[in-house]
Each structure stands twice: as C-alpha cells, then as structure tokens.
Amino acid sequence: MTETDPIVEAIFDAVAATAPEIRAALPGRRVESGTDNPSGESVLAGDLYADELLADALTAVDGVGSFVSEERAAAVDAGAAVGSDGEGAYAVAIDPLDGSSNLRSNNAMGTVVGVYDAPLPATGRDLVAAGYVLYGPITTMIVADADGVREEVVTEAEGGSVDRSVVEEDLTLPDDPLVYGFGGRVPDWPDAFTAFAREIEDELKLRYGGAMVGDVNQVLTYGGVFAYPALNSAPEGKLRLSFEANPIAYIVERAGGAATDGDTDILDVEPEGVHDRVPLYVGNEGLIERLEDALAGD
Ligand code: AFP
C-alpha cells in the first residue's frame, strides 16, 4: 500500500464537501443559464453553480496551483506554486456537472475530477489521481490513485459536516462483462463501429443513461464497455480529453480495464488545447482489443 498523497486526499475532501450542497441546489437550477461553454454547449444554471462552488473549494487547497473547468475558457491560478512534496503544484481539471441534461429528466449525473502534476493541456500520463462524484439514488465518489480504485459513500453528517466512507477498497472490473452503453445516434456511427456494436448487442445488456459518469459506473460495477465513439458527423467524438476522457481512462485502467481513442491508449493522446474532444472507448481489456481490431478493419 503506497502512502496516500495528502494533497490528493485534500482535493477529494474538498470535492466531497461540495457534494451535498450541489445536490441540494439542483432542484432549483434545472433551467438554461443563457450562456454557452468553451465547447459551444449550452450551460444550465446547475453547471454554473457547481463550477463556482468547486472552484472556490479547490483553489483553496494547499498544493493546487491551477483549476481548469470544462465551463471555463482558461485556467484559474490558485497561487500555490509548490506542493507539499516541494515539487510543482497540481492542476485540477473538472467537469463540474457531467450529464447535466439529465437534470430535467431527473437521471444520474456527476462531477469528474482529474489531478495532473503538469499544467494543462497535459496527457493522461501526467495524472496522479482521478475520480468522480455520482449523484444517483445515493451520492458516491470513485477515487483512483497510485494505490488503486476505491468507492466511497458521501453523506452529510449532523451539523453539516460531510462523511466519506469507503465501501469498496480495491474496485476492479469483473472478469465477465455484462453491460454496454454507446453514445451518439446509430445512423451517425461509422460502419466499423456499427459492426462491433451489432456483435456486442448479441452478447451484453444495454445500459445507456446519457451521463458518462453513470454509464461508466455501470461498467465498473458489472463489467462491459462504454463508448462515445467517433461519429461520421464528428470524427473527434463529443467528450473532452482533459476533463472527461483522461480521468475516466485513468480510473478504468487502474481498475484493470483499458481505454482507447480507437487506436491509441487515451492516456497517451497528445492534446493541442485544453478543450480538445476525443472518441472514448473504455471497459474490459478483451472488449477494447476487439473494438480496436474492428476499427482497424482487422
Ligand atoms: P451533458 O453534460 O450536456 O448532458 O453531456 C453529457 C455528456 O458529455 C456525457 O456525460 C455523456 O456520455 C454524453 O454527453 C451524452 O451525449 P448524448 O446526449 O449525445 O448521448
């Protein structure tokens, strides 16, 4: 068991501390904010609220040098030039409310967190930890670091303090895959992906809820594959490398799975900009190998 990095622990303490407040604020923030994010997507009031709360919480953590959000054009300088280990401070990248379009339909959504030890844009190899909060029937948090992947239940204790209780110490993908979830519209899938999807439909059960964190949590829990693929209309896919694909790839690979953009390990994808999009395919290694062969035309 490696020594848990105190800055990483403080970062996930700060993320957990905001969870009850974000969850409580959602009912009143299901409306459009009237603004778009740097990716050109319309932003809900819930996105902005979560972004502000997390920015305040994370920039206050000693050892966090910058805060970058899917909802912001540029990084926010957090001032901490040096971390507790005397090295450079961490850059924390978040998707404050992933799956926010599920807010109106009252379905799962969450917050995605990547902790990089390099300024963004950085590759996933610069991640030292990653995780996500999942607002489902209960609030859970997945935390992945050098030590592995753990699942925690986040609850608000008496007096407003927040409790993180580990419910799964060493989370790994089950060997026998059970579920799949593929984003985008079927007619917009390239032929090679469609052929792969037809095979998978015969083998696994469909679980697609429209929020990456919820769909990936199904794969972590039951084994299988999640994809937001390259589309005919959008060869780069939809998900952002820095805020969604890298953290999810880090988590799934630490849990014994694999993550690719179709031919390269997601963690090796070299970004040009902080808001780059990338096709994302994650899950059991055997399924990802089959997918890469299918996309390569093997
Ligand atoms: P929103 O945050 O706009 O709801 O988008 C969620 C997301 O980025 C990711 O969480 C989902 O996997 C994907 O988009 C769903 O996209 P579709 O709505 O095209 O299925």
Structure characteristics:
298 residues, alpha+beta, Fructose-1,6-Bisphosphatase, Chain A, domain 1, D-Maltodextrin-Binding Protein, domain 2, 2 domains, eight-stranded mixed beta sheet, 6 helices, 28% helix, 28% strand, binds 1,6-di-O-phosphono-alpha-D-fructofuranose
- The CATH architecture of the largest domain can be given as 2-Layer Sandwich
Cofactors, ions and other ligands in the entry: 1,6-di-O-phosphono-alpha-D-fructofuranose
User: Briefly, what CATH class of the largest domain?
Assistant: Alpha Beta
Shape: globular
- Spell out the CATH superfamily of the largest domain: Fructose-1,6-Bisphosphatase, subunit A, domain 1
Q: Give the proportion of residues in helices.
A: 25-40%
C-alpha termini separation = 40 Å
Which structural category fits the helices and strands? alpha+beta
Strand percentage: 25-35%
Trace the largest sheet across and list its strands. 4-3-5-6-7-8-9-10
The SSE order reads: HEEHEEEEEEEEEHEHEHEEH
Radius of gyration over C-alpha positions, nearest whole angstrom: 18 Å
H/I helix tally: 6
- Low confidence ranges: none
CATH fold-level name of the largest domain: Fructose-1,6-Bisphosphatase, Chain A, domain 1
Q: Tell me about the biggest sheet?
A: 8 strands, mixed
Overall number of structural domains = 2
Please tell me the overall pLDDT: 93
What is the count of β-strands? 15
